[in-house]
Fold:
Amino acid sequence: MCDSLDNIDVEVGARAVVPAGTIIDDTLGLLEFDAFQRIDLSAEFENQGVTKDDVDAVHLVHFTLRVESPADGSLDFLRSASFFAETEGQPRVLIAKLDEVPRGARELSMDVIEGVDLKPYVVAPSMRITTEARVGGRPDEETTVAADVLLDVDIAVPGC
Structure:
């Protein structure tokens, strides 16, 4: 009975702007999502009436990438991508990846790494989600990519 009462979903989103390629510059470094550089879920927990001390476990449910612009843009500049959780005092941990990006894709569901408990990262003062991407050059036009993350947060509820 308590299984659904002691879990909350927390959504985290970010955007990255990938500049158009030029003759001089045809490589892309990291796919950097600024909002993922400092994630602090304290306010989200407060809105739910819980604190970081109430967290029992945190698991990634899904991680998607989506082209927001241009309207006809795709993720063809990506060949593969891996995402990691990081925080001070904890090892860097792989949380999601896609070994091969299908040609023409505008939206991707990353493969979530099962069994990774993100509690030590979420209860830290802040965590980061970083990216390693294998690329095939920059896109023809400036491209905005949105990343959406859904976390399942298991919280301690007295009596459950």
